[in-house]
Amino acid sequence: MRIAVTGSIATDHLMTFPGRFADQLVADQLHTVSLSFLVDNLDVRRGGVGANIAFGMGVLGTQPILVGAVGADFDDYRAWLDRHGVDTDSVRVSEVLHTARFVCTTDADHNQIGSFYTGAMSEARLIELKSVADRVGGLDLVSIGADDPEAMLRHTEECRSRDIPFAADFSQQIARMDGEEIRILLDGATYLFSNEYEKGLIESKTGWSDEEILSRVGHRVTTLGARGVRIERAGQDPIEVGCAEEERKADPTGVGDAFRAGFLSGLAWGVDLERAAQVGCMLATLVIETVGTQEYTLRRTHFMDRFTKAYGDEAASEVRKHLS
After folding, report:
1. Residue of 226, 164, 229, 160 lying closest to 199 (CA atoms)
2. How far apart (Å, rounded) are the C-alpha atoms in residues 64 and 173?
3. Gap between the Cα atoms of 155 and 126, Å rounded
4. Residue 243: burial class (beta carbons within 10 Å; 0-12, 13-18, 19+)
5. What is the rounded distance in angstroms from the CA atom of residue 74 to the CA atom of residue 18?
6. Above 90 in pLDDT, residue 64?
7. Long-range residue pairs from 303-308, CB within 8 A, at least 24 positions apart, any chain
8. Which residue, 46, 36, 119, is CA-closest to 88?
């Protein structure tokens, strides 16, 4: 399968606060919050949901096509992605704007407060998927992740008009989108990704019930945090997959992106939905054990040993041949 991954490409500035955000909030003063947190650490990492997903797919060997917009400061980042199996030839380079930046603080309970500077990401709306498809010989699936909102709408409309299957993955952008935009982005999607909170927000903003949404998408994929993931299809029993055991918990940033990378890689390999979700959960476990969204190392023997322990010999035998 040729899978294009659209979405933000950014630099992450990740900080850790040793206390709890909840202890700093005064219930009757939430309408005039003014807080500053003294943080212990700062890590500057490569990130952005599109690049994170593409990186994970690249290290799994599925050769994703990254689609997004960056600034002239992208050369080192491009070399990194190229070296890890990502096709970056469809990334647009802005002549005037910097690559986007995500600034995030994580507290002792792993709650997060983040801000995102869009920068060159706003030019993603100028990218035509047809030119991407023509360059690579056609696309089998486009994952439309959090990006410039206008770009997300245009990519979705182009997928519909050109009959290209697509996955809807609003992620951080759901907070700024209204119900009509969300309805446009999800209607007809082959896959709809969200976490549990976003699932409720999608239903609230669209006015559609869970059943109505399931009737409009092929598969609804909901990540459940430490409980794994649930995959639903209209008229069929849900598939639920648990997480692999963690060796440690370092940083939750990018865990959802890693799940998507593993899941999409499973689709590219042609394994069934349960196996694809297991690969996603295993890759997500590697990321939560690492500070940074692309700093983990996928050692195949180690990956398969842990995958076998979590999901059994039969599952491992189906996945191992693709990793080798």
Report:
1. 229
2. 22
3. 10
4. buried
5. 32
6. yes
7. 306/244, 306/245, 306/282, 307/244, 307/278, 307/279, 307/282
8. 46
User: Residue 195: phi, psi to the nearest 5?
Assistant: -95, 180
Quick: pLDDT tens for 6-33: 999 998 888 999 999 989 888 887 788 8
208-213 mean pLDDT: 96
Contact by Cβ (8 Å): 104, 12:
yes
Query: Over 80: is that where the pLDDT of 227 sits?
Result: yes
Active site residues: 257
Rg (CA), the chain: 19
- Write out the two tokens for 33: 């919050």
- For the record, the structure tokens of 105 come out as 């603080």
Least confident of 52-66, 104-118, 264-278, 309-323: 104-118
Q: Which of 60-69, 188-197, 227-236, 246-255 has the lowest mean pLDDT?
A: 246-255
